[in-house]
């Protein structure tokens, strides 16, 4: 509950106080008061409202104590945050739009993308600086500095705290969605940072609540849910288990059902976009009771559609992998060779080539490809998996010589 | 209301000045229209074009004496060729003007906020 209330409270306090640092300090103070009172008085019926009101009152008290306090207070009342007016004294209720406004501030394209992600996790995800630091694999002081720089730019350059106008909305929304998805995939890539997956899904859920009419927002949530449904089966004892070998009874049925529901609603709506199509591809995988039952033709058709609106080498790679499951491996290998130059440094390209070469019986070439993949892989889990492939191939290679 | 510096960086290969009289006329037409738009909407504060870095002199204090060196402070292929100072409500408004300047001059623009009058 802390993380959710934290994000709501900071968002609203930024509106009321007009400053991110002041808002964070005030909310932290209010949580200290809460940890003192709630255990004896009981949790108030509206915890976020309580935190916001307490934080606001404390911040205003602090201002009044300052030498320039009165004048500054008047100034806040008259100017507010970039023109917004301060609320009348009394209860302040968190408004869900506040979170959306702050999300658009944190994900403003004038900020570096790693700063966008860090700010979003800190301010809306409610992660501590130490937690954000560990999810970026940097030291806490380095992350604190990064956050200070990002807040400084927001304030100095006056990055607005508002939902963009219709004309700019789709572009700006794209950057919000990619921040949330990046948080998710960072969690997927490294088991030690798996908590990020939950944080991203939570942000995705609140985004759906805040923007129920944006199909790509729903698509992103469905994509994350369907991908995450397989997380329990994806590694066993720290070793990657391929989709083909996963124990499908371990998949999370509840997430799959929710994801499917969203995908179907998106299809009925008929405004496809990159996240919805990727979710639809995940839905086809989740639909199959066994790997062999996978509807590869449907998956290839969806990749074709995706490639027509998002023509990236990674999409082409995934399409080629799907082709490998239907046609002869020659077709898959030539498709992979065509993409290879643009994905030279991507371990999954090399491991896909390794798999295609293995199927063609070209053992030595397959070993070379898996070796390249292993050199480029970022996580221990991936390296472990690739090492297994190499060792198995070496074993069969020796056998065939005998 | 805040003020922003929009500076134009030239010399780095991107953005070529007009090379024919017709191009020069079209270029000036775009600039004049842009500046008229800025004035009409209260955004215009000041603008200037600068001579090249060969015309620059750097002055520094060495043991209480002023020492001059010929040339720019930073030797680089790119240099500030001109600038606007504009009024804008926030960064989004400033970026919108920057986009129009980029369209008019076909060169990159750096947007930087001024300290505001209260000094924060």
Task: Give the secondary structure arrangement, pairings included.
The complex is a heterodimer of chains A (about 400) and B (about 120).
Chain A: H1 2-17, H2 20-41, H3 47-65, H4 69-79, H5 96-106, H6 113-124, H7 129-136, H8 140-157, H9 166-189, H10 195-210, H11 215-229, H12 231-234, E1 235-236, E2 239-240, H13 253-269, H14 274-287, H15 296-309, H16 313-326, H17 329-339, H18 347-359, H19 363-376, H20 380-401
Antiparallel strand pairs in A: 1-2
Chain B: E1 2-10, H1 21-40, E2 44-49, E3 57-62, E4 65-70, E5 79-88, H2 91-105, E6 109-113
Antiparallel strand pairs in B: 1-5, 1-6, 2-5, 3-4
Helix pairs in contact in B: 1-2
Shape of chain B: globular
Estimate the helix proportion of chain B, in percent. Answer: 25-40%
* Low-confidence sequence ranges of chain B: none
Which two chains touch over the largest interface?
A: A-B, 12 and 11 residues
Order of helices and strands of chain A: HHHHHHHHHHHHEEHHHHHHHH
What's the CATH topology name of chain B? Alpha-Beta Plaits
Instruction: Specify Rg of chain A, calculated over alpha carbons.
Output: 25 Å
Provide the residue-averaged pLDDT of chain B: 89
The count of DSSP E runs of length 2 or more, i.e. the number of strands of chain A, is 2
Strand percent estimate of chain B = 35-45%
The fraction of residues assigned to DSSP E strands of chain A is: under 5%
Strand order of the largest sheet of chain A: 1-2
Overall geometry of chain A comes to elongated
CATH architecture assignment name of chain B: 2-Layer Sandwich
Helical content of chain A (DSSP H or I, runs of 4+)? over 70%
Structural class of chain A: mainly alpha
